[in-house]
Specification:
single chain; 24 strands; seven-stranded mixed β-sheet; mainly beta; seven-stranded antiparallel β-sheet
Length: 284
């Protein structure tokens, strides 16, 4: 059955416009909350590379993609001309795609290719519901759907304890794991005692990015830095909130303790290393 979705829209913003915004305007344009609502699908359509950000949290009943969400993309089905990546940060789930079932444990991912019509999402234990975080981007070809276990993702150890940024980066939806049209998704988990991510800062004018912060205590926060390098701004992020990062913006952060985040990208290329690094002394 379908449930009424929480739908949002984020228009593209010029950097000089963002620099004139106050705190609430920045949050209204670049932050998504809440991403998970029990028994509902949430969806936000962004005008940055047409990325759709989804939060799917089935409880006692299955969830499907509501008609209102399909209408957002102007198609007969969400994936008529799109691809979709999902990472589960909750309890065990089953995703059914055109009759084929896929079981997802915590921190497993699922890629669904263009052309799938019917989707259903189930929590194995409603008392420990799945939290399926999804990103959908326009597609030009159909690639095979696939479950990616955390053990199958490419793991990279980064940073050091001495610089408070020791972390593990997992590449799930990535060209070295499986083919996609443009979508990239992965997860970064900071080691205990580390708080910084993605320094030195960088931009990539060819791709936008979105960050879901999670694994945070209720009283914890991450200061997500954004904006042009010469005119930075920030967002205070709480558990299970999403920051939208425009192509012109840096994206890095520091928290009150260790945390995890899911990063996703869409745009011109899929080269993870295609970054324009910003010298530390250039940040203002």
């Amino acid at each position: 059955m379908s449930h009424t979705p929480a739908i949002g829209l984020r228009h593209a913003v010029h950097p000089t416009q963002a620099e004139a915004m106050g705190t609430q305007d920045l949050r209204d344009n670049f932050l998504i909350e809440p991403i998970f609502t029990p028994g509902q699908v949430t969806a936000t359509y962004t005008h940055y590379d047409r990325l759709v950000v989804l939060g799917i949290m089935p409880t006692v009943s299955d969830l499907t993609i509501p008609a209102e969400v399909v209408q957002m993309v102007g198609a007969r089905a969400l994936l008529e001309r799109r691809e979709l990546g999902l990472i589960n940060i909750g309890g065990p789930a089953v995703v059914t795609a055109d009759g084929k079932t896929c079981a997802l444990d915590t921190h497993d991912a699922l890629y669904l290719g263009m052309g799938i019509v019917e989707l259903a999402f189930t929590s194995i234990d409603p008392a420990n519901p799945a939290r399926l975080y999804g990103n959908s981007a326009p597609a030009h070809a159909t690639h095979p759907s696939r479950v990616i276990r955390q053990s199958e993702a490419i793991e990279k150890r980064m940073g050091a304890q001495e610089t408070s940024n020791q972390r593990s980066l997992f590449q799930y939806v990535h060209p070295d794991v499986l083919p996609t049209c443009q979508l990239l998704m992965g997860m970064t988990r900071l080691a205990k005692g580390s708080v910084w991510n993605t320094m030195p800062a960088h931009t990539h004018d060819r791709r936008m990015e979105a960050y879901l912060y999670f694994d945070m205590a209720p009283d914890a926060m991450v200061m997500h830095m954004m904006g042009r390098p010469e005119a930075t701004r920030h967002l205070i992020m709480r558990n299970e909130q999403v920051a939208i990062s425009p192509p012109w913006s840096i994206h890095c952060g520091a928290g009150t303790g260790a945390y995890s985040f899911i990063w996703s990208m869409a745009g011109d290329n899929q080269s993870f290393t295609d970054m324009d690094f910003v010298p530390m002394e250039a940040l203002k």
